[in-house]
């Protein structure tokens, strides 16, 4: 079967790889000049080497992504720094480290017993809330749709919110806890903290550019058209016609939701199509900011952790939430790099760039003043991805992979994966769309 995949992000590429392996003739159309989508490479004149558009992390619970990489011949042990989850500030005002084994609730309890910066009351309520979640099969009552409503209901202390719930919510959902969907947060916790499998809560950080991992491998075997935006998709006798030029029997539309909405506009009208249009119109987006800092030498005197928690407080102009120190990423391509990350970065993004960088560097100096001073900065660049992810708010109705038009499937982190907008959701959606397409093909042959 001759299939088109529109969009070469992690969703589109995982679909294309699956279809190719099943023997389909696959053509991928990508509007950008490189594959990878929102996990792409940027080259700044201020830095000596290219960097990712944002510092990404993966979890041990990203089973679909890790299996896909393996099937592409990528050895995750070689390309990722992997360690048990460690949440800690540079000066140890807070520290929670999870053992690799046991996982699940027992691991979390060990972590809490050993945690610094939380009172026994905070630890008790936190453990109780997780226990409660497990007992209700990770289902949140509709009475407390947002994370902060649920946290209040669970009597979480300000310290537990500040150091545990809020940072995890911002990192995973890129949505402020006041408006974040508590159920999506619970889904993430279920697969990580609630998962007794060894290493499910591990953090994995690539030691090279994300695009150089499996996307590059996969693209070598695909018919990939870069810099080819699809502007029009119409029904044709045998399937779909793209840009009035390319004919395909089936299509997987793996662009972001707002682009998908535009492309569906020229297809024959139907009630279900109108409903899908309404779903696609409801997505709002939130930015993520990453300040990449290149030092003259690796900063080894900071605590030997690749990822440290910063104490953000926008009222004090402290916007940074996480600091990634590549000096402590095993096998790092560039150990001179630091990345300061701010999720749901609307406040930071509204500042003039110079001011934003000034505040971030000030915060970094304040929060690390106990350590040996930071080596000299050789250069820095602030990357703000305005539409980094959709806002994971309650009652957002996310579309399935299937569409009302026969032969057309949707893929993307915004489809109904149960996950927030993350790499694992993108991969799962791509795999699901490809499997449904293949299943439809088999059915029509019967
Ligand atoms: C700064 C940042 C940090 C992040 N951090 C993390 C993290 O730590 N962990 C994590 O798991 N996730 C993280 N994410 C989210 C993750 O990157 C996304 O969930 C994932 O990349 C989405 O993949 P996708 O394939 O669904 O969509 P995209 O990557 O958006 O892919 C869609 C593709 O379609 C192309 N396209 C659009 N329109 C057209 C058209 N008309 N014709 C042809 N092609 C088109 C686009 O160019 C793009 O390549 C982060 C995202 C950002 C931006």
Automatic annotation (TrEMBL):
SUPFAM superfamilies: FAD/NAD(P)-binding domain (SSF51905)
Protein name, entry field: Amine oxidase domain-containing protein
A Pfam family of this chain: Amino_oxidase
Originating species: Neopusillimonas maritima
Annotated InterPro entries: Amino_oxidase (IPR002937), FAD/NAD-bd_sf (IPR036188), SQase_HpnE (IPR017830), Zeta_carotene_desat/Oxidored (IPR050464)
Domain annotation Amine oxidase: ranges: 11-438
Stretch forming the signal peptide: none
